[in-house]
Design a protein that fits this description.
CATH topology of the largest domain: Aspartate Aminotransferase, domain 2
CATH architecture of the largest domain: 3-Layer(aba) Sandwich
CATH superfamily of the largest domain: Type I PLP-dependent aspartate aminotransferase-like (Major domain)
CATH class of the largest domain: Alpha Beta
Strand order of the largest sheet: 3-9-8-7-6-4-5
Bound molecules: pyridoxal-5'-phosphate
Distance between the termini: 47 Å
Largest sheet: 7 strands, mixed
Helix content: 40-55%
Order of helices and strands: HEEHHHEHEHEHEHEHEEHHHHEHEEEH
């Protein structure tokens, strides 16, 4: 028996319970329709909310930047210096998010690892459904953890009461919950944070480009300011269509992170084409909110259609559309049948969502046309009936 036999055993187990991820290979740009294994399929699972991932203007910005600056950043920014494009991106993001300053990191995931340990909180209060990158960020601390019931401000309040002897307190929540599409009650959380003198951090990965004026995100959506929400974590890999993460807030916060955050100090910055493309995305959003409006129109149209067919779309309040199926095996089967019908929509199971709550997660995009959505509804109906879900 080899030392690594346990790996095969675990893979077999995942396969048995329907949790093995078969990763599809895409042979075309990320758009409304994709080419997968030579087959043309409707894309219903990317986070490319606004269709910017293959936008010609953004691709052009990346090409021009490569001609001017090359590709690589050379080393970490504190050692090799910061390329001016990284500064331009940070300033552009600050204008977009209406904050004093932002600081860029390599991804949204990394940003949570960068920020959470550096707050040095004595106690952390974290929503039970927070994203894995927040959970891992919390694991990097020695803080006392309080996990409050999902979106339950009363439970948050009692946990804060319970932990009131702790000095520095940090509350962390996702803005939009990525698997259910519901929105954190950030206005109420901000009020409680103030009452308990707790630092408030929100991860706006699925709020940016989606919520608020021109997709400015959840803080704008609730008409709050960055005096109410101390730390706003963002990603450039979803609605912005590129890759990268950042923190928005005060100059003090970003200056502190530039001196302290380990992924900033010990890992190189994003590449030139990433940064140039991200700048172009943010500028498009600031100039024109038509893509955001189209996204919402598509989401409302599709979700209404699914509910009319009798599907359970959970408690979504955003374009994230969970199609609740329960058992992981059924959900996988559903996804497979959809693929036969030219629909690419992945099944999501444990540990991404709790056991017994497997689902197809449909992601709407401004890239979809009404005909695309009608096509999808027709196929969901067909598969739903054949698997006796509706
Ligand atoms: C997707 C996601 C991330 C990770 O973002 P990347 O830029 O892809 O690393 C972090 N937090 C939340 C809430 C997310 O949904």
């Amino acid at each position: 028996m080899s030392k690594l036999t346990f790996m095969q055993e675990e893979l077999n187990r995942l396969e048995d319970v329907g949790l093995y991820n078969n990763i599809r290979t895409i042979e075309s740009p990320q758009d409304a329709w994709l080419k997968i294994e030579g087959k043309r399929v409707l894309n219903m699972c990317s986070n490319n909310y606004l269709g910017l991932a293959d936008d010609k203007r953004i691709a052009q910005a990346a090409k021009e930047a490569i001609d001017k600056y090359g590709v690589g950043p050379g080393a970490v920014r504190t050692i090799a210096g910061t390329m001016e494009l990284h500064k331009i991106l940070e300033d552009t993001l600050a204008e977009f998010k209406q904050v004093e300053a932002t600081i860029g990191l390599q991804s949204g995931f990394v940003t949570n690892q960068a920020v959470i340990p550096q707050i040095g909180a004595d106690a952390i209060f974290t929503d039970s459904l927070n994203h894995a990158s927040i959970i891992d960020g919390v694991r990097l601390t020695k803080s006392k953890r309080f996990i409050y019931e999902h979106n339950d401000v009363n439970d948050l309040n009692s946990k804060l009461e319970e932990g009131k002897e702790f000095g520095r307190k940090l509350i962390i929540t996702d803005g939009v919950f990525s698997m259910d599409g519901d929105i954190a009650p950030l206005d109420e959380i901000a009020k409680i944070a103030k009452e308990h003198d707790a630092i408030l951090m929100v991860d706006d990965a699925h709020g940016e480009g989606v919520l608020g004026d021109h997709g400015r995100g959840i803080v704008n959506h609730f008409k709050l300011s960055h005096h109410d929400v101390d730390i706003d974590v963002g990603t450039l890999s979803k609605a912005m269509g590129v890759v990268g993460g950042y923190v928005a807030g005060t100059k003090l916060l970003t200056e502190y992170l530039a001196q302290k955050a380990r992924p900033f100090l010990f890992s190189s910055a994003t590449t030139i084409p990433d940064v140039a493309a991200a700048i172009a995305s943010v500028r498009i959003l600031m100039e024109d909110d038509s893509l955001v409006r189209k996204l919402w129109k598509n989401a409302e149209y599709f979700q209404q259609g699914m509910r009319d067919l009798g599907f359970d779309t959970g408690k979504t309040q955003t374009p994230i559309t969970p199609v609740m199926l329960g058992e992981a095996k059924l959900s996988k089967e559903f996804s497979k049948e959809l693929f036969k019908e030219d629909i690419f929509a992945m099944s999501i199971g444990f540990p991404t969502v709790p056991k017994g709550m497997a689902r197809i997660r449909v992601m709407l995009s401004a890239a979809h046309s009404t005909e695309d959505l009608d096509f999808a509804l027709q196929k969901f109906e067909k598969v739903g009936k054949s698997l006796q879900v509706i």
